[in-house]
Amino acid sequence: MKRTLKYLAGAAVTAAVAGMATMSYAAPADAPHDTAATAQAAQLRAAAPAGEDRPATATGPAARKNAPTPRIVAPGERVTAAPGFQLWLTAEGKHWTTPSMPELEQFRSVVDGNIDRGTPGVSVQSEISDGRAYLSGLYYGGKGTASTVVIETASGTVHGKLLELPGKPGWGAWYATTDVRPDGGPLTFVSDITVRDTKGKIYAQLTTR
Length: 209
Fold this sequence. Notes:
Blueprint: E1 4-10, H1 33-47, H2 61-64, E2 71-72, E3 79-82, E4 85-90, E5 93-98, E6 101-109, E7 121-129, E8 132-140, E9 146-153, E10 156-159, E11 161-164, E12 171-179, E13 190-197, E14 202-207
Parallel strand pairs: 2-11
Antiparallel strand pairs: 1-7, 3-4, 4-5, 5-6, 7-8, 8-12, 9-10, 9-13, 11-12, 13-14
């Protein structure tokens, strides 16, 4: 079995502030109640995106309350991302195994001084084996609550998952797996990793291009 390891680390932070348009509706003061309700419903439908029959406000702050958050795991609790690919967290950092050597524990520290948990950042560790990529890393230092991670690879966009310890440790781990295209070598496989918070803003980002 051929095994290729590539470790990359980096950190960047980008912030975005998005404004939200507000809309108000009014019916004639002397219109019957049913007439006013009908007029308001028609205006709401007109404001909805094409092909959708729903009020435009359905994607507002109320929808963001349901944004995903990291899976909370106990220290040492193992999560199986794929056969042979397991991850677990301790207060010291991220531990993992890969399919080519499932008996070998690998480790990325959050306390050895190699990362600054006060500055937003993302790291990546990857193994490409038998046509599959096993990707994971740390994220740390961002504001708010991490919610999603998107990884741009030579095989396309990959949506990963997040893990954190209980409380507010200020860091967590992300992971993902995907197929590898024949023309997607390990040196250029991962080009961008973006972690966003529950409001859709960038929590931390890494660009390797």
